[in-house]
Write a sequence for this structure.
């Protein structure tokens, strides 16, 4: 199950998996298969990314190149222009940002702008990408993209004939075929290598062998039989290849793009499929050869990264549903989620709105496959998947919260800061404590004393009464925050635009920290970004834990020295 001991280090963040994590898909592209163009404008993309965070996404996966079947490769400069403003803005709001790219230049720029994860659809088969990630601290997602079925073998009908004449005739046919093959070799060599000749492996530093891409061989271009048969226009084009123009070079790189070629073949297989009259003994293909290819590639690439210098706890794996795989093959792979989870790396389930989800649900339109996506993701979570990559982050967060509440008892410790400087301050704090204890799936386990403090930020107001309440809760952080906001409203807190942000208030409730949770966005930041500078929070916390400054520094929070803090404690007002 998802509540296991795996952790994933992604730059300054560390994700635990006591609860499945949600990765929201943010395509800054005009042509993605289900939402192309909706978030192509950077401002629209940033707004949507923040909305996904506020709805429950833990990670935002930003991509600037569509890799749908039949996609057109994007120049790295154009891809960077699309994604970097979005990555920078989301990271500034404390979000864990993943950059979905296969171009090392884009990955480098995105990490400099604040991305914490590199999601490479080519599975780090580019040695330059490996060299980059080994020198950084970002998390990495190794994805399998490629055909998983063994090449089909054709069998000719054989009719036995033991006569000497048949034997001689067969030998003559073999000799003629061999002569024809020899005659073809020079023409095939002119293209740089024999067709079907495997791509050589690349050696990384330290003697690590980087395997070639698992996409299969690109489709061969057709060639004329002889130069005399070549049309004049083609001869002129061939002459220009001595010094190609930049546009021609870019077009050639697109035609030689192995991922694009593989996805074009995948699209054509889907379009060309017609039912046959041949009967099959089983509903799905044998899983063993498929899983050998997928798990073999993922484990080999993970080991290659480790040998190159990437620590194991930075690696996540993804079987790459839809990338060169048929619907039957994708179902086989999803049913073997437990085997992939047994490899010991955090496991991604990235099935959102894919073709095979439509095939099993009967939903033709990709954008309408979210409900079916949730069902497939739930099956993966039950089998050990740790991260789900979805387009509808808000919908899946609701789905997951409902399922987790009844299926996985999981009380977690959290701290809530309480403050008041209007009316009967101590009574307001005690009333808030009692109301917190009534929140579903939540109890109050401890409370600090009530302290008086100087006002912080807005100094021209009355002194505050402050306390910190320790709770245990089974609610998701954003759900708990909504409950705290309801208590504020019931006790008369004015959060309208006319009210000063740090001005007088009857009650103020801040969710400071929750066990195992890291979150960014406009609505909620965890840990609370201002804990380390607030004396009126750190002093009450000393009643509940030993050395809170050390505790929060360990959790990545900058904690200031007492003399540099705001809202200093000036006295005690009694017990809760």
């Amino acid at each position: 199950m998802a509540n296991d001991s795996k952790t994933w280090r992604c730059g300054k963040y560390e994700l635990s998996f006591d609860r499945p994590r949600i990765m929201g898909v943010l395509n800054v592209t005009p042509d993605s298969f289900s939402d192309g163009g909706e978030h192509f404008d950077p401002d629209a993309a940033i707004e949507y990314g923040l909305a996904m965070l506020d709805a429950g996404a833990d990670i935002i996966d930003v991509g600037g190149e569509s890799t749908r079947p039949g996609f057109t490769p994007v120049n790295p400069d154009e891809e960077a222009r699309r994604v970097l403003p979005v990555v920078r803005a989301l990271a500034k709001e404390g979000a864990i940002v993943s950059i979905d790219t296969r171009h090392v230049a884009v990955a480098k720029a995105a990490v400099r702008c604040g991305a914490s994860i590199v999601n490479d659809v080519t599975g780090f088969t580019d040695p330059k990408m490996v060299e980059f990630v080994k020198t950084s601290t970002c998390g990495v997602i190794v994805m399998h993209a490629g055909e998983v079925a063994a090449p089909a073998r054709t069998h000719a009908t054989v009719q036995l004939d033991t006569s000497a004449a048949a034997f001689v005739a067969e030998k003559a046919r073999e000799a003629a075929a061999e002569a024809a093959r020899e005659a073809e070799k020079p023409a095939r060599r002119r293209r740089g290598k024999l067709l079907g000749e495997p791509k050589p492996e690349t050696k990384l530093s330290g003697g690590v062998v980087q395997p070639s891409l698992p996409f299969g061989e690109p489709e061969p271009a057709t060639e004329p039989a002889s130069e005399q048969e070549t049309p004049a226009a083609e001869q002129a084009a061939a002459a220009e290849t001595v010094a190609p123009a930049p546009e021609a070079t870019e077009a050639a790189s697109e035609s030689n793009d192995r991922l694009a070629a593989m996805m074009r073949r995948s699209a054509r297989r889907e379009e060309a499929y017609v039912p046959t009259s041949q009967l099959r003994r089983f509903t799905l293909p044998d899983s063993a050869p498929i899983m050998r290819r997928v798990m073999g590639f993922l484990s080999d690439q993970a080991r290659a990264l480790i040998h190159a210098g990437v620590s194991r706890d930075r690696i996540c794996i993804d079987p790459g549903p839809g990338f060169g795989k048929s619907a039957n093959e994708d179902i086989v792979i999803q049913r073997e989620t437990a085997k992939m989870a047994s490899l010991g790396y955090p496991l991604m389930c990235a099935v959102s709105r894919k073709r095979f989800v439509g095939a099993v649900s009967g939903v033709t339109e990709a954008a309408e496959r979210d409900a079916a996506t949730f069902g497939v993701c739930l099956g993966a979570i039950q089998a050990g998947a740790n991260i789900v990559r979805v387009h509808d982050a808000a919908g899946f967060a609701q789905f997951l919260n409902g399922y987790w509440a009844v299926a996985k008892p999981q009380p977690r410790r959290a701290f809530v800061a309480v403050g008041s400087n209007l009316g009967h301050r101590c009574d307001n704090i005690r009333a808030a404590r009692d109301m917190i204890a009534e929140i579903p799936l939540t109890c109050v386990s401890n409370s600090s004393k009530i302290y008086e403090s100087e006002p912080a930020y807005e100094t021209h107001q009355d002194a505050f009464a402050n306390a910190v309440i320790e709770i245990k809760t089974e609610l998701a952080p954003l759900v708990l925050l909504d409950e705290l906001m309801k208590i504020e409203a019931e006790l008369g807190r004015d959060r309208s635009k006319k009210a000063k942000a740090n001005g007088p208030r009857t009650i103020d409730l801040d969710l400071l920290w929750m066990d195992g949770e890291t979150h960014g966005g406009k609505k909620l930041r965890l840990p609370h970004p201002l804990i380390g500078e607030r004396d009126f929070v750190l002093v009450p916390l000393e009643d509940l834990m030993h050395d809170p400054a050390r505790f929060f520094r360990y959790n990545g929070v900058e904690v200031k020295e007492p003399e540099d803090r705001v809202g200093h404690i000036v006295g005690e007002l009694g017990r809760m």
Summary: The CA atoms of residues 348 and 387 lie 5 Å apart. The first strand starts at residue 7 and ends at 10.
